[in-house]
Amino acid sequence: MSSARASLRHDTVRWDEAGVETVVDGVHRVALPLPEDGLKAVNVYVLEDSAGLTLIDGGWALTGAFEVLDTSLNQLGYCVGDLRDVMVTHIHRDHYTQAVWLRDRYRLRVLLGADERPGLEELRRIRTNLPTHAFDRLRSGGADGLLDELAAVDWPPYDPTVWKPPDVWLEDGDVVGRLEAVSTPGHTQGHLVFRDESRSLLFSGDHVLPHITPSIGFELGGGALPLKDYLESLHRVLRLPDCALLPAHGPVTDSVHDRVHDLLRHHEQRFDACLDVVASGSTAFDVATGLTWTRRERAFGELDAFNRMLAVCETVAHLDVLVDGGHLGVDEHDGVRRYGLGHA
Q: Which one, 41, 62, 226, 327, has least CB within 10 Å?
């Protein structure tokens, strides 16, 4: 299969505004709304072929998202009934839940990475939207006060109808039409990116994002060292031929490799920053409070409770990789892990 670089047409609309953006002939980006203040939208991609339409990611099953998708398909001369497959990059609700909602109404197929099965089964078992595994990481990270704050958060109710299993579990290397599934664990254990070699496009989900870094260590179950998995997955993408980046959040850009190099440099800087902050007996919460967060270099205390939870989970992920590499020691007492340049 040839891999000639397609001529991109992008930045015709703001990435987070409703509307259709044609990336290349037969590939269209649609931004669907999200309820959070931080992330305003999630990109889904409509792929045309003679057998019908394929959707990359489904969006969040919430009021307004379906209407935007339906209107966008109408602009392209289609309707929702023309969708054949929804190929989902990972299990998070802003990617998966509307795919299931659509499947139950329009008889299309939902395809998801096979390594997302344990997380989905655990979610269906506990039947709650509370991030219970993240809470466990907060306890081991010495963040009991933050746990008390999160207990007061009005978490959305669990809806079993949007957490049903997919029709197809995809394995690494599976090919569906033009798309090859490539395993990229880290953000979630079963995260996939979809590679269109013939048009030199990579639908990157949350694995490679143009402006932000994906959260690490925030999922049900997952690997013991999710950041190590993530960094290895970034290197795997570098071993593929460079191509255009079609992310789940942010604008389309011309080079996956350029952004991957940025992300690898970022995490090296975070490792250095953790080592600068850690002292004998530091918890992950202690280290997180000594770091700055987001592209705006905000202090930990400026973040809301949800984002402080993400920050502590990500700090745990960095510290555990430093322990794995022999740069830090760790001891555990009463369920709390304490880190230091030697054993605490």
A: 327
